[in-house]
Amino acid sequence: MKPLSFSALFLLVLSCIIQSFYLIEAQTQQQFLYVDDCYSSSNYTSGSAYERNLNFTLNSLVANASQNGFYISIIVGQNPDTVYGLFQCFGDFSAETCRNCANIAAKDIRQRCPTKKEASIGYERCVIKYSNRNFFSTANSNLRYNFCNKNNATDPVLFYRQLVNLLNNLSSNAESAPAKYALGTTNNTDNDTYGLVQCTRELAEGSCLTCLREIISKIGICGGGKLGAQLYSTSCYLRYEIYRFVEAQPELQLSPPEVSTPPPPLLEPNSTAPGTTNTANPPGKKNTTRTIVIIVTTVAGLLMIATILTCLVWRTAKKKRPDGSVHEENNSVLEDDKSSTHSLVTGLRTIKAATGNFSDEFKLGQGGFGPVYKGILNDGREIAVKRLSSHSVQGVQELKTEVKLVAKLLHRNLVRLLGFCLEEKEKLLVYEYLPNGSLDKILFVEGKRHLLEWERRYKIIAGIARGLLYLHEESQLRVIHRDLKASNILLDENMNPKISDFGLAKLFQGSQTHGNTNRISGTFGYMAPEYVKNGNFSIKSDVYSFGVLVLEIITGRKNSSFRNLTNLQSHAWEHWSNGTTLKLMDPTMGDRWPKHEALKCIHMGLLCVQEATCDRPKMSEVVVMLNSSNMASSSMPSRPAFFISKEAFDSEIIAREDTVLDIRSNLSTSQGSNQSVNGLTITELYPRD
């Protein structure tokens, strides 16, 4: 590593100073609203087990504040030392804003409520709460704070009626949404009205709707017909305005109104609801508080810069291990995409606690990459932990690929990544736990295959198709999986399929549709011919793998179960050509399957495994086929790639037997004449196209 030049060092220091002042601004922008349960709760003793658990809880809440802006934590222990914690951001703010609010909230709650066993703090952008009792699932709709717009609607009665209808509809949507969040708009005489409602996500069924309906009924505290308001309770929140107020968050972005957007009108804070206490800084102290924050943060920033300069001096020299190799922290593999992966970092201690320190009792299975363990987090959620072994075929680069891709892909037919860990030489991936395991553990096991009746198999085929369609065409990224197979299809409690294992996936940019590699990775039997021969891959490579998988699901047979020179595609094509297609059906299903659906799936599978990529359908076309009643409009499949006919197979066997006889004859002759046999070569036989 070359020493940094003075200009480069100057630019780095300048960048640090600018970032420090951005941090100052971010901290002062987190507007504190209220403290709750702080003054009435009991105290804990400094240095006690409760304080240690509380520190761990707050650190967990900050570390796990994901892009979804929500996390709950439970410290398992005996009363009175058990700590329950919750953090949540309001849905109209970006992930970066949410993380800033989490850091400030965790520090602020300790300063404002020292030694208290129960406290909650609300901000304009997030809420944090902890307690020594389980408050999850219970709604607290007591109004803690509200802002009211100064301006009144032209027709207050009509405006209020339309507003309540909007907020009631959004409340119903939020109740059924996983994020307990809903955003919408309605037209009125003054302008488009934008509304947002949200609950904390741990609430029990029905509690979110109840909480929102209660604070909607309190809108009148601002006076009838106000053009904007924000109402906060501990468990739910609402906001409405006549201008767009959502931060730049693509999944939440609203379409702009047809009329020009007016500047935000001034808000007047209305202290708190009657009967509550507002402990926020009074207006006269705001400037003083801001000055103190700026001074303290500036000093901290200068200390940080001094630390950075010290580290730079240390890094200008090569730091080598005793064997001469340059030292590199494992976590650096993810430094180029911190924005999408930082929120997924999971502590090794958390994972060890969830899996019984990787106990065999929790082990779900073993793959080429290493073992998979079931785990149970403190909040009761079940997880699956993939632990990459030191000699795993899936290394740090594959883990990096999987984290970066799966973190950005959200679809009901893709497995959900919950976190990852790179500590103490461990390489761990944390996924949602799917109780029925992988498809191959049921489909290819004699005693379990009967569990997959026709309806479930058809649903699995359709779900895999939808997942691939999302990867190829509908997601914000164009992704080629490159290792689609039965063992990489996981099944949830309702036998819904989820595509997993993105360690070999390739990301396409813009209009790119194909790529090339010298490193062929995947599973033989599922890989397309153009990929095996030349390293060319595209969305049609995944289509080929999908076709093989469909034939496996229909027949109940592994592609690798065919010995010698034949394969599943050839077996299926022989029956298709001879008019005996339905003999391919898995006998464990009996005759309880619709003939037209069975023929449609086999037809579609053979279309997908054709040799020419241009002849294979796109996944969008596959989904249309699955949703249509017949295949009359579809083209007829041509002979599949890697096809070996029965006649060719029989001829090859005869040729082998003749060769063996010739060799034995030559050997016998040579032994009789005491002569050696030279120039004899044995050629390996490969499937012919």
Automatic annotation (TrEMBL):
<dbReference type="InterPro" id="IPR001245">
    <property type="entry name" value="Ser-Thr/Tyr_kinase_cat_dom"/>
</dbReference>
<feature type="domain" description="Gnk2-homologous">
    <location>
        <begin position="32"/>
        <end position="135"/>
    </location>
</feature>
<keyword id="KW-0723">Serine/threonine-protein kinase</keyword>
<keyword id="KW-0812">Transmembrane</keyword>
<feature type="transmembrane region" description="Helical">
    <location>
        <begin position="292"/>
        <end position="314"/>
    </location>
</feature>
<dbReference type="GO" id="GO:0004674">
    <property type="term" value="F:protein serine/threonine kinase activity"/>
</dbReference>
<feature type="signal peptide">
    <location>
        <begin position="1"/>
        <end position="26"/>
    </location>
</feature>
<keyword id="KW-0418">Kinase</keyword>
<dbReference type="InterPro" id="IPR002902">
    <property type="entry name" value="GNK2"/>
</dbReference>
<dbReference type="InterPro" id="IPR008271">
    <property type="entry name" value="Ser/Thr_kinase_AS"/>
</dbReference>
<keyword id="KW-1133">Transmembrane helix</keyword>
<protein>
    <recommendedName>
        <fullName>Cysteine-rich receptor-like protein kinase 10</fullName>
    </recommendedName>
</protein>
<keyword id="KW-0808">Transferase</keyword>
<keyword id="KW-0325">Glycoprotein</keyword>
<dbReference type="GO" id="GO:0005524">
    <property type="term" value="F:ATP binding"/>
</dbReference>
<dbReference type="InterPro" id="IPR038408">
    <property type="entry name" value="GNK2_sf"/>
</dbReference>
<keyword id="KW-0597">Phosphoprotein</keyword>
<dbReference type="GO" id="GO:0005886">
    <property type="term" value="C:plasma membrane"/>
</dbReference>
<dbReference type="GO" id="GO:0009737">
    <property type="term" value="P:response to abscisic acid"/>
</dbReference>
<keyword id="KW-0067">ATP-binding</keyword>
<keyword id="KW-0732">Signal</keyword>
<feature type="domain" description="Gnk2-homologous">
    <location>
        <begin position="141"/>
        <end position="245"/>
    </location>
</feature>
<dbReference type="InterPro" id="IPR011009">
    <property type="entry name" value="Kinase-like_dom_sf"/>
</dbReference>
<keyword id="KW-0677">Repeat</keyword>
<feature type="region of interest" description="Disordered">
    <location>
        <begin position="254"/>
        <end position="286"/>
    </location>
</feature>
<feature type="domain" description="Protein kinase">
    <location>
        <begin position="358"/>
        <end position="606"/>
    </location>
</feature>
<dbReference type="Pfam" id="PF07714">
    <property type="entry name" value="PK_Tyr_Ser-Thr"/>
</dbReference>
<dbReference type="Pfam" id="PF01657">
    <property type="entry name" value="Stress-antifung"/>
</dbReference>
<feature type="compositionally biased region" description="Low complexity">
    <location>
        <begin position="268"/>
        <end position="286"/>
    </location>
</feature>
<dbReference type="InterPro" id="IPR000719">
    <property type="entry name" value="Prot_kinase_dom"/>
</dbReference>
<keyword id="KW-0675">Receptor</keyword>
<keyword id="KW-0547">Nucleotide-binding</keyword>
<keyword id="KW-0472">Membrane</keyword>
